[in-house]
């Protein structure tokens, strides 16, 4: 059932993509602002590849791939965070291990399930036509969960970003906050998977924040601008993808990259407090 | 007055390498104590043990009469780490950073009240950054950045403030403002201060006690007057410290230890 919206969002499949895309446009930069400051820009990439493993498992056992991707990506995020916090492996080694083994396991399982075809490409690069009503409802619910959690814990997450040791001395639950951030990132990655694709999902965590850092004069302002860029890129990117028959994920990310280029070229960058 | 911080026979080792050996010290309520010692003397390790960030291999540490991990509420303890490393591209304002120090007092999940905002403003003003509250911390000088982190610790209105090399490498103006802020914290809020620093010149007249750490042991613990009597100036800098310690040793280590016993009493 579609609602009356103007072109290019008048069709139901575009509205489902739009709902999913807007969740990504809001949530990815919101979480990315913390990840970028913690020097974990590639965290989303590692988790995205694990989500792909989850898709492979879902295809192999005949379960809804979004659910299996959510489980595997969340579990992987917890493992990465544990390895990082206990310094059992350096951050980039832990990520590389999960990145490559996650992608390899996903491809092996999808080929075993006989699903290594166009459906595979939609998970890798995103697609306008693959978001189902069930996907959109689940992604919308996950989006509400993410925004509510960040509204509740955002200041504490910021305190950890500013000075983790002082936050620990102050009695903030640093380890639990880091874990919450990791799991929420995994949830966002899965939400973004259908529209943006696992190979480009990390771009939505990082690039809007890079734009926000150039124009925002505060952390709050940076997050606000990053969300505005993320949402704007989703709307423009989805519209352009439909108009010219382009891959949605790549188009959305190119819009963000273009926004970065435009802002970087502006003579005065600080626009908002 | 009771001790807000006490360490009894604390030892700590990194593997087979002992760093602290039988360290005993205390800081009483409202007292201003400086902890000094040359590089490698174990100051940073001792601080981590005192704050509960590392467990001693032997001995007991108590903050406000309980083990550091059991301290509640945590806002009673304020901490300014050595050269807090703000990410170079973090666009946070002074007010945002200082407000982060209020979370322990308010509860990290609760919304700030008018009183919280007043205390955050008060903390910024006390270090002379009231006018720069909307400025990005990354755009400030090193001294101003350090003052922002001191204000962050002030914002929680701690009863014990621990500072690790807070004025290392900062300009004279920032050192003077730092001293004024500490005096204000003590006079208006009655807070105790444990200051780890090589540079005591700015606060030399305000100190109640000086503890000298050397080779992981307390080498001296006593009033600044005892040091002055031994011909030692508190206006020392990092490079002068070994010389200062030699002077102290020549003046009589036994006297120093005796002064320390009195200081701990």
Task: Chart the SSEs and their pairings.
The complex is a heterodimer of chains A (273) and B (265).
Chain A: H1 12-37, H2 43-61, H3 65-85, H4 91-112, H5 118-125, H6 133-162, H7 164-169, H8 174-193, H9 201-215, H10 219-244, H11 248-265
Chain B: E1 3-14, E2 17-28, E3 32-36, H1 43-51, E4 58-63, E5 77-80, H2 94-100, H3 103-106, H4 114-126, H5 142-154, E6 160-164, H6 172-189, E7 192-196, E8 209-214, E9 217-222, H7 224-229, H8 241-264
Helix pairs in contact in B: 2-4, 2-5, 4-5, 5-6
- Under the CATH scheme, the architecture of chain B is 3-Layer(aba) Sandwich
Give the C-level CATH assignment of chain B: Alpha Beta
Shape descriptor of chain B reads: globular
- Tally of strands of chain B: 9
Largest sheet of chain B: 6 strands, mixed
Q: Compute the CA-based radius of gyration of chain A.
A: 18 Å
Task: Report the β-strand fraction of chain A as a percent range.
Answer: under 5%
Reading the helices and strands of chain B in chain order gives EEEHEEHHHHEHEEEHH
Percent of residues in helices of chain B comes to 25-40%
- Physical arrangement of strands within the biggest beta sheet of chain B: 5-6-7-3-8-9
Q: Could you estimate the helical fraction of the residues of chain A in percent?
A: over 70%
């Amino acid at each position: 059932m579609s609602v009356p919206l103007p072109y290019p969002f008048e069709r139901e499949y575009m509205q489902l993509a739009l709902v999913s895309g807007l969740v990504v446009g809001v949530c990815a930069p919101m979480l990315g602002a913390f990840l970028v400051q913690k020097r974990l820009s590639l965290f989303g990439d590692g988790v995205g590849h694990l989500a792909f493993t989850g898709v492979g498992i879902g295809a192999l056992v005949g379960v809804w791939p979004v659910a299996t991707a959510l489980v595997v990506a969340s579990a992987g995020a917890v493992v990465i965070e544990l390895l990082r916090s206990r310094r059992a492996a350096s951050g980039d080694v832990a990520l590389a291990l999960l990145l490559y083994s996650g992608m390899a396991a996903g491809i092996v399982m999808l080929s075993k399930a006989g699903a290594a075809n166009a459906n595979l490409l939609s998970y890798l690069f995103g697609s306008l036509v693959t978001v189902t009503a069930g996907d959109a409802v689940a992604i919308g619910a996950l989006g509400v969960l993410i925004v509510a959690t960040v509204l509740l814990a955002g200041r504490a997450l910021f305190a950890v970003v500013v000075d983790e040791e002082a936050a620990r001395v102050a009695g903030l639950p640093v380890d639990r906050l880091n874990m919450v951030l990791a799991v929420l990132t995994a949830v966002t990655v899965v939400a973004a998977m259908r529209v943006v694709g696992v190979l480009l999902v990390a771009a939505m965590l990082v690039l809007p924040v890079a734009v926000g850092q150039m124009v925002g004069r505060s952390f709050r302002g940076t997050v606000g601008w990053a969300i505005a860029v993320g949402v704007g890129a989703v709307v423009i990117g989805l519209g352009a993808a439909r108009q010219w028959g382009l891959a949605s994920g790549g188009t959305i990310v190119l819009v963000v990259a273009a926004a970065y280029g435009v802002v970087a070229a502006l003579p005065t960058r600080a626009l908002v407090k | 007055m009771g001790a807000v911080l006490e360490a009894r026979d604390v030892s700590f080792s990194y593997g087979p390498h002992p760093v602290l050996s039988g360290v005993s010290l205390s800081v009483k309520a409202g007292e201003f104590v400086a902890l000094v010692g040359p590089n490698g003397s174990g100051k940073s390790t001792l601080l981590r043990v005192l704050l509960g960030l590392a467990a001693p291999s032997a001995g007991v540490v108590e903050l406000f009469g309980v083990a550091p991990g059991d301290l509640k509420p945590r806002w009673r303890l304020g901490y300014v780490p050595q050269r807090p490393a703000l990410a170079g591209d973090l666009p946070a304002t002074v007010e945002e950073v200082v407000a982060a120090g209020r979370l322990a007092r308010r509860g990290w999940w609760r919304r700030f009240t008018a009183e919280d905002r007043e205390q955050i403003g008060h903390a910024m003003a006390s270090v002379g950054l009231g006018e720069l509250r909307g400025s990005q911390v990354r755009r400030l000088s090193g001294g101003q950045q350090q003052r922002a982190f001191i204000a962050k610790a002030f914002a929680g209105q701690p009863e014990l403030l621990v500072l690790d090399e807070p004025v290392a490498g900062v300009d004279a103006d920032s050192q003077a403002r730092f001293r004024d802020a500490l005096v204000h914290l003590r006079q208006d809020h009655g807070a105790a201060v444990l200051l780890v620093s090589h540079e005591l010149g700015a606060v030399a007249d305000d100190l109640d006690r000086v503890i000298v750490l050397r080779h992981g042991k307390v080498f001296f613990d006593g009033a600044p007057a005892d040091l002055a009597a031994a011909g030692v100036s508190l206006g020392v800098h990092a490079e002068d410290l070994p010389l200062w310690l030699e002077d102290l040793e020549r003046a009589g280590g036994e006297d120093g230890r005796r002064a320390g016993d009195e200081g701990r009493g």
